[in-house]
Amino acid sequence: MIFLAELTFSGWHWLWPSVAMVGAAALVLAWSYRASAAQPLRGVCLALKITGIVALALCLLEPLWLGQRPRAGANLFAVVADNSAGLQIHDRGEAASRGDGLRALVDPTAAGWQSSLGDTFELRRYLFDARLQATNDFHELAFDGRSSALGSALRTLTERFQGRPLAGVLLFTDGNATDLPAGALPDLKGLPPIYPVVIGKRDAVRDIAMQQVSVSQSAFEDAPVSVQADITAAGYRGQPVVARLIDRTGRTLQEQSADARGDGEAVAFRFQLKPEQSGLSFYQVRVGARSELVPVLVAPPPAATGTPATTAASTTAVPAVAPKTDEATLANNVRVIAVNRGQGPFRILYVSGRPNWEFKFLNRALMSDEQVQLVGLIRVAKREPKFDFRGRAGETSNPLFRGFGNQSAEDVQGYDQPVLVRLNTRDEIELRAGFPRTAEDLFGYHAVILDDLEAEFFAPEQAMLLQRFVSERGGGFLMLGGMECFQEGKYVRTPIGDMLPVYLDREAQATAPLGPVHLQLAREGWLQAWARLRDNEGDERARIDAMPTFDVVNRVRALKPGASVIASVRDEKGEELPALAVQRFGRGRTATLMIGDLWKWGMKDAASRLDMEKAWRQLARWLVADVPNRVDCAVETLAADANGAVRVQVRVRDEKFQSVDDAVVVIDVEPVVFAGTAGATGPAIRLEAEPALSEPGLYQVTYVPRQTGGYKVFASVKNPAGADLGRAEAGWSTDLAAEEFRSLTPNVALLEDLARKTGGEVISAVDLEKFAKRLPQLRAPVMETWSYPAWHTPLLFGFALACLLAEWGLRRWKGMP
What we know:
The chain is of the alpha+beta class. The chain is built from 17 helices and 35 strands. Helix 4 runs parallel beside helix 16.
């Protein structure tokens, strides 16, 4: 807002004498002009003389001009220049970069506007990229900053000048802030008026940019990892744009092509792949115009699919991007992604009340999965009452073991104990006493499957322990259908039945047999990748229609709130019942498969057997997905940090999965190197994590990457005595350059909002001189009042004299007396 001077009078004690003088002069003049009443200019002459007399009378009142202006040297004014690498861009038709233009604008030797501002304000000069730093004359401008932390820079200014008279901020930037979400403004509280100077033309430059890359993982066996890259292109309308998925060896796994749309319109590329190894893997997504890319032959990745991908048999690593291109920059053409498939083995405990076909097919299916290990505990004979007749007098062991090995009372199963067979155990001690009775033994598994086993098999403490296994340990639980499961197994109102996703207290009229039923996916099942076996709806429906019918189904009354039906069965009369239901329970998940003769699927033919085995593997993978380990490592990106800092978090638990608060956690951070490309390099860095105050058993440390690329984190945990408690790994990728060059068009809308909401305005670069001269007329924190006598000026006396002379001249011209 511009403040104008106002007129005031300091000689009010001369008011009435002045009025009397003017009145008397008016009467005298009126009387003297009585003889010239017929003259047409009589009134004009009279008005001129009275006006001159009034002007002279006003001098007696001592008129003064009063106003306010910023006190010279009392106010501060900040000049802030963007030093990020984004200003290396050349606008269309410009030989000089945006940074060169900015350097010329802020050069103190050539910019007179700084001298003009310095006459009134005390200037403070700053540069900003990832952080704000002071400068004397902007000679440090190199435009090599990895990010444009505009929001952080403004917050730092607010804190630095809190309570000080900061009159405004002159901001030189392109407005492409890397620390602000799209369309968001920084915290403007406490900021003075901001005057942005937009650097760069609003016209789009020729460039292909990767806006976002998202990675999703599922238990779908054929392609468990999906990668979507959203690309925008400017100046390439109608031209083919190519996206490539590259592994660490430089091998192109998949390639897709699509025509570029209008400037700023996104094109999505989707890749589906199955990593060749478990654990942590890193890939590059690289994009470019087909005419500017080196042709490569794409190596067919094992068991990976992608549409529309061009494949050829070659494993030669070829540079993906030609060194010569018309793009404004190549820094936003590459992204590194991290994929963590988990490091097994994931151990699943299968407990069955009798030998059956389900274990045969389930065990055979999981034998081909190197990451999942199925441990079996199968009862081959039930417990018998002690009062029953025994085979021989004095015999206390089970007659089934007669003649086998040592028959001492300590080494054989009692006659009143069930006969259990252990399969795939780690050693001879595992499950030797039957189903685990302690948390240390049970919590070592990732999931538990019950099949054809009644509730009485479990002691009360074992049933409660199994519920804690899911709710506290975060394990997976699956109950299969059969004649001794669900309500038939008397699980109603038991700790195990309480955690199932279905109600077991069904009504009596619902006990009639269904007969042959057909399996079908429910709505939720179509949305879950692990529940499907084909990658398109048509093939999946054809597969389901070809499945055999089933005869054994456990009825349930209804689903519990929060549970989801993945699959259902329908009989010939159209009655439909849930067949596969899931839900979250505490920290874990539970599922129920109400079909008791699913093995018929695998007996139909060879193709059906392969489908059933695949379904078992995907269901098992879903059961163990997200199950915590004793030591877990995760990486959290600090969104508000412009330097790309991350927080490495390690959660440590003991054998009972209780938090460990006295562990020693060492973190090793190692950069990931891609063959044939520049990226993060250097030795591993060792850090020591500190306990967090917010959560027991949580240890964390902050790491700031110095280079763009992928990083691996290895966590090693020991107790105070030096014993190893476990290890874990995680990974992430940082693409500071990609974020900086996400958009090359100046964000004028952000700068306009910033100026409007702080009381400033957008300044054109060519109007800096005018702005520097106009700024002292605007309000500042420290103002001073100035006054200037309006009567003691040649202008006022000249005006009065001009009026009198004009009157005298008119009278002489017309011959008036």
